[in-house]
Amino acid sequence: MFTEENGMNVYCTCGRIVNLDRYEMQLKISLGKELQCTVCRNKRISQEIDFMNDLYNGLIDEESY
Predict the structure, then answer these.
(1) Domain count, the chain
(2) pLDDT value for 8
(3) What percent of the chain has pLDDT over 90?
């Protein structure tokens, strides 16, 4: 549960301030993940989905990637 006592504010690479729980932040860092705001996270996920769709539809050659 996020509260002021265990929360932290960090900057996303885009400059937005992200409010994260300390445990959540430490977990993401230990997994090697970026700390992202929801806008950047949604954009990244959308790009990954588009890439997978293009790969599935044969628009990207799997061997060349």
Answers:
(1) 1
(2) 87
(3) 58
Q: Where are the alpha helices (DSSP H) in the chain?
A: 22-30, 38-56
Structural domain containing residue 43: 7-56
AA letter at 62:
E
Q: Is residue 63 situated within a structural domain?
A: no
Q: Is residue 26 part of a domain?
A: yes
Predicted confidence band of residue 62 (pLDDT cuts 50, 70, 90): confident
Question: What element of type H or E holds 19?
Answer: strand 17-21
pLDDT at residue 7, as a whole number: 85
Radius of gyration (C-alpha) of the chain in whole angstroms? 16
